[in-house]
Write a structure and sequence with these properties.
The protein is of the alpha+beta class. The chain has a single domain, classed as Aminopeptidase. It contains six helices and seven strands, in the order βαααβββαβαββα. The protein has helices at residues 15-28, 37-42, 45-57, 103-117, 132-140, 166-169, and strands at residues 6-9, 61-68, 71-80, 86-94, 122-128, 144-151, 158-165. The protein has a seven-stranded mixed β-sheet, sandwiched between helices. A hairpin with a 5-residue loop joins strand 3 (71-80) and strand 4 (86-94). Helix 1 crosses helix 3. The longest helix has 15 residues, at 103-117. It is globular and about 35 Å long. The mean pLDDT is 89.
Length: 171
């Protein structure tokens, strides 16, 4: 049974749900993320609680969930960058069974809204050079590669920097 999808910030008391989704995404689709499953799995409950509490406060970072009938369908995070114009979108993931429903675009929109609330006008993100489905999603959502890339930590390959103006994401 389908219900209405709600896009909302993760609450600080939802740290265990955030941890479980984050560990799942890293276990099931490890090659698409810079963080390793082993590292996330080894973090203490206190680390997960602190990260989620800081994001729930919303000053310099946020975590957002797409939820339907109490089930988390997708998540995304964001934090303010040193460049005062920018935020960085991180940890975007939608349950493979739920892809194609527009959830990723709504999560991107939530990051853009949070960015604007912080006085930032540009959203940046890194995407693995091998993650062609994510590159296609981000391009279709108005992001463009900047030409910058970085070596992946602890693996072969590169991650590419994409960016988009906040106002373009909110149209």
């Amino acid at each position: 049974m389908s219900g209405e999808i709600t896009i909302r910030p993760v609450r600080d008391d939802e740290w265990a749900r955030w941890r479980d989704v984050r560990v799942r995404m890293l276990r099931e689709e490890a090659s698409y993320f810079g963080t390793r499953w082993e590292d996330a799995h080894a973090q203490s409950a206190e680390q997960w609680q602190a990260w989620t509490a800081e994001a729930a406060a919303g000053r310099t970072k946020t975590l957002v969930v797409a939820e339907e009938n109490g089930r988390w369908l997708g998540v995304v995070g964001s934090f303010t960058r040193v460049n005062r114009r920018e935020v960085q979108l991180i940890s975007m993931w939608v349950d493979p069974k739920e892809r194609g429903r527009g959830i990723a675009r709504e999560l991107i929109r939530a990051v853009a809204e949070w960015s604007r609330s912080k006085g930032r006008d540009r959203v940046c993100l890194f995407v693995q050079e091998t993650n062609l489905p994510a590159q296609a999603l981000y391009r279709s959502a108005g992001f463009a590669p900047t030409g910058d890339r970085e070596l992946l930590p602890r693996r072969r390959g590169f991650k590419l920097l994409f960016a988009a103006d906040v106002d373009e994401r909110l149209r």
